[in-house]
Amino acid sequence: MQLMTAEIEKALKKNPLYSQDGKGGDSKIVVKYFGGSAATWLITEGEPEPGGDWLLYGFVTLGLPDDFAPGKLLWEWGYVRLSELQSLRFPPFGLGVERDILVEPGKYKVKDEVFMCRQYGRD
Predict the structure, then answer these.
(1) Do the domain assignments include residue 63?
(2) Does residue 120 sit within a domain?
(3) What is the maximum span of the chain, computed from C-alpha positions, in angstroms?
(4) Which residues contact 26 (CB under 8 A, 6 or more apart)?
């Protein structure tokens, strides 16, 4: 699956790094990636790098438990390169990262996407 499209590139150019700084859960999602059983990247900002790669920023879970909230997943803000997402493979079948085609750039906020997840906060 193609992780970067012309539509996503256009949306990221309108949302460069630090453009949504301070918005937290109100940050708008540009693209959602997922892989494995629970790994999810809600990308809110990004910029192209020399050589064709992209530096992306967003709210991320790798499906690890949150030690301070039993039964919930650990989520955190962080950076990832597009090339890193493209190179990931998840056991046992070696499947790669996918793009959620139902999440349109700017349509959802981080809090809307994350907090509807039972493992994060809503029961």
Answers:
(1) yes
(2) no
(3) 44
(4) 109, 110, 111
The answer to whether position 51 is within a domain reads yes
| Mean confidence (pLDDT) of the chain | 89
Percent of residues in the chain assigned helix, strand, coil, to nearest 5: 20, 30, 50
First to last CA, the chain: 32
Cα–Cα dist 44/8, whole Å: 11
Rounded to two decimals, the pTM is 0.89
The whole-number average pLDDT for the span 80-97 is 95
Q: Does a structural domain hold residue 35?
A: yes
The CA distances from residue 24 to 4, 40, 99, in Å, are 24, 17, 22
How far, in Å, CA of 12 to CA of 46, rounded?
5
CB 42 within 8 A of CB 58: yes
Q: Is the pLDDT of residue 100 over 90?
A: yes
